[in-house]
Design a protein that fits this description.
The complex is a heterodimer. In chain A, 39% of the residues lie in helices and 23% in strands. Chain A has 13 helices and eleven strands. Chain A has a domain of 68 residues. The model of chain B has no long low-confidence stretch (mean pLDDT 89). Classes of the chains: A alpha/beta, B mainly alpha. Chains A and B meet through helix 5, strand 7, helix 6 and helix 9 of A and helix 13 and helix 14 of B. Chain B: This is Phosphate transport system permease protein PstA.
């Protein structure tokens, strides 16, 4: 770990001079400042839920993720930040194999959930997705009733044998998502008639209705207003007690508010992983600092 | 200052030009719609103007006495003899009673020209059903001859030539004035199959034939087309083979329909030995023709389902099949149905391929199954339009109206289904 740090810091010192050069030159050095597959900070954890080593993702010929190694601990909230196109969403989608549906996408490296290989050809992707749920950037409720939206997952997985059990799951999930009081009188109303914030919380309720172990969130608040965002963030804090949550966000304030650890991605590299307050107060890597101080991104 | 003024001037100038362009464009659009609407109005006016008389029949209503002697029957209770009786004689006798000035064999033969050649057999059927009316006098309504039909409807229309002699015309006029010859709703047109006699011809056979053919087409092409579209869109890998298939489907949609008829003739009739002129073969051929339309529109409908819905379902752990069945299909269904109904409407109006598989035969009986000889509405129109009898001109137009009614109701159904099933997301 320490050797790794030093090697990068030497890189940084070498780059110190060009940093002060005029803007045109200033844009350039960051690319060379990262060493392939090297990450500063604390990417590894003892009690790892996900153990990811040397992950590489290719879209056809172009490489989107460059040798990322990272552990994600049980019941932690980890935020992925970084400029657009840095690969954080791609990386997130590897974790429940949502990239499978993209023909040209190839994933290499070792990705393990509880010690089991995610990309084992014998592995059932349906079972994986039941354990690793996902909430998307845009609220995407099914064009069905609120009840049916939440009940869909338990139904297809056969989690409830009786109507009353299903009712309980739906109520419980909606309560956890903080939506129960708003919708309990209109469970049969179409979900598409709700406000954006409500729809997103419904999507979260739908995800947790199948009791996943991990919830992946891909910029869950980017389409929401500040009030709805605040509600979703509150919800994330509550959910972190029982779930491992991985959240991709463009809002650094949001990352700072909700996450325990923050991972900074840059052009497919995982540059720095550290405790959230450390990342936002004393980032180790120059690139992280440039990003959080708003110099680019 | 001067700089900004001149710039404003330039903008104003260009604005003027832009608005002029916009107005011109709008004028083009309105003109195009006007042309289309005029064409439609002319078409409908022509068809309805020519064809509404096709919905009228010309009949004679007379007091007919069933005199066994006149009908050359020795024993009217004998069914065998009844079959061979002269049923035209009592009709002519009744007519003669109305026109007392008629006498002589020649005049009688001229009188015969007023009565439809099918009237006698219609009366015969009546007697066969109820032999007790032999020897009694009944008030009967029966069809007038084709020439009287034309005379009664179109005697003032120069485009029709009246085939009746002067004498017959005088009789017909007298009978018309007395209300013995009259026009009424043409129920025969909707209850009969084709016939050599326009007065006796109907579209029922063609309607039933069309319905049977459409049923075969729909039952085969909808499931096959939708399954093909789902497979190509959701499951098939993107490679050269699927690209090739896609190109070929698009090409098939543009193949002239008569080619499908040739294919049907070669494959279904010559190779598989299926009978000619039957709705099953017609349906198969039209299925080949509508499949590309249904596949293309179904694929478009599947493509228009937002990927976010698929992702949502996948994210919860729905399998590929569940994503398709629970989410993609219901959302794509309105588009698929619309495409299918439009394909069906196309098939309903199709003539050329059916000519080649023998559905153009002269078939009098209303088909009673998928394997009985039949014809379809557009082919019936084609047959009548080419017939020399004048009575068929208006009946062809009437049949066109029936076909249009079917097409319009199918399109209305498509719109209704789309509105009904459409869900917002």
């Amino acid at each position: 770990m320490s050797t790794l740090n030093t090697s990068i810091s030497t890189e940084q010192t070498q780059r110190e001079a060009p940093e002060l050069a005029p803007a045109a030159v200033q844009d350039k050095p960051e690319e060379t400042a990262i060493e392939y597959g090297q990450t500063v900070g604390t990417p590894f954890a003892d009690d790892a839920k996900f153990r990811l080593r040397d992950v590489e993702v290719y879209y056809g010929e172009s490489q989107a993720i460059k040798g990322v190694s990272l552990d994600i601990a049980r019941n932690e909230v980890i935020a992925f930040i970084g400029p657009s196109g840095c690969g954080k969403s791609t990386f997130l989608r590897c974790l429940n194999r949502m990239n499978d549906s993209i023909d040209i996408c190839r994933v290499k490296g070792s990705l393990e959930l509880d010690g089991q290989d995610l990309y084992d050809p014998r592995r059932d992707v349906v079972e994986l997705r039941a354990r690793v749920g996902m909430v998307f950037q845009k609220p995407n409720p099914f064009p069905k009733s609120i009840y049916d939206n939440v009940a869909y997952g338990p139904r297809i997985h056969g989690l409830a044998n009786r109507k009353s059990e299903l009712d309980d799951i739906v109520e419980d999930s909606l309560r956890k998502a903080g939506l129960w009081n708003e919708v309990k009188d209109r469970l049969d109303a179409p979900a598409t008639g709700m406000s954006g914030g409500q729809q997103q919380r419904l999507c979260i309720a739908r995800t947790i209705a199948v009791s996943p172990e991990v919830v992946l969130m891909d910029e869950p608040c980017s389409a929401l207003d500040p009030i709805a965002t605040a509600k979703v963030e509150e919800l994330i804090a509550e959910l972190s007690e029982s779930y491992t949550i991985i959240i991709v966000t463009h809002s650094m304030q949001q990352a700072a508010r909700v996450s325990h650890r923050t991972a900074y991605f840059h052009l497919g590299n995982l540059v720095e992983v550290n405790a959230t307050d450390k990342v936002f107060t004393a980032p180790e890597h120059k690139l992280t600092e440039s990003y959080i101080t708003g110099r680019f991104g | 200052m001067t700089n900004s003024t001149s710039q404003a001037e330039i903008v104003r100038q260009s604005l003027k030009r832009r608005y002029r362009k916009e107005r011109r464009f709008r004028a083009y659009g309105i003109a195009a719609i006007a042309v289309a609407l005029t064409a439609l109005v002319v078409l409908f006016a022509d068809i309805i103007g020519k064809g509404y008389t096709g919905f009228l029949k010309t009949t004679l209503t007379l007091e007919v006495t069933f005199d066994p002697e006149l009908m050359y029957l020795e024993d009217p209770t004998d069914p065998a003899q009844l079959r061979n009786g002269d049923y035209l004689a009592p009709l002519i006798a009744a007519l003669k009673k109305e026109l007392p000035e008629v006498s002589g064999r020649r005049a009688e033969r001229a009188l015969k020209g007023l009565i439809s050649s099918y009237a006698a057999s219609d009366v015969k059927d009546l007697v066969a059903a109820d032999p007790a009316i032999m020897g009694t006098t009944q008030r009967l309504t029966f069809l007038a001859s084709d020439d009287v039909d034309v005379f009664a409807k179109h005697r003032d229309d120069a485009s029709y030539s009246i085939k009746l002699t002067e004498q017959q015309q005088a009789w017909a006029l007298t009978l018309l004035e007395r209300g013995i010859i009259e026009n009424s709703f043409n129920d025969v047109f909707f209850s009969n199959g084709d016939s050599r006699d326009p007065g006796h011809a109907g579209v029922l056979g063609a309607i039933v034939g069309s319905l049977l053919t459409m049923a075969v087409t729909l039952l085969l092409s909808f499931p096959i087309g939708v399954s093909a579209a789902i497979y190509l869109e959701e499951f098939a890998p993107q490679n050269r083979l699927t690209d090739f298939i896609e190109v070929n489907i698009n090409n098939l949609a543009a193949v002239p329909s008569i080619i499908f008829g040739l294919l049907g003739l070669a494959v279904f009739i010559n190779l598989f030995g299926m009978p000619r002129s039957v709705p099953v073969v017609g349906g198969l051929v039209l299925m080949l023709m509508t499949l590309p339309t249904i596949i293309i529109s179904s694929r478009a409908a599947i493509k228009s389902v937002p990927p976010s819905i698929r992702e949502a379902a996948q994210g919860i752990g729905a399998s590929k099949m569940q994503v398709v069945l629970h989410h993609v299909l219901p959302l794509a269904m309105p588009g698929m149905l619309t495409g299918s109904i439009i394909g069906m409407a196309q098939a309903l109006g199709e003539t050329a391929p059916l000519l080649l598989i023998g559905m153009v035969a002269f078939i009098v009986d209303v088909p009673d199954g998928f394997f009985s000889s039949a014809t379809v509405l557009p082919v019936q129109i084609f047959l009548w339009a080419g017939s020399p009898e004048q009575g068929f001109i208006e009946r062809a137009s009437a049949a066109i109206m029936v076909l249009l009614a079917f097409l319009i109701s199918m399109n209305a159904l498509a719109i209704w289904l789309r509105k009904r099933l459409e869900r917002r997301w």
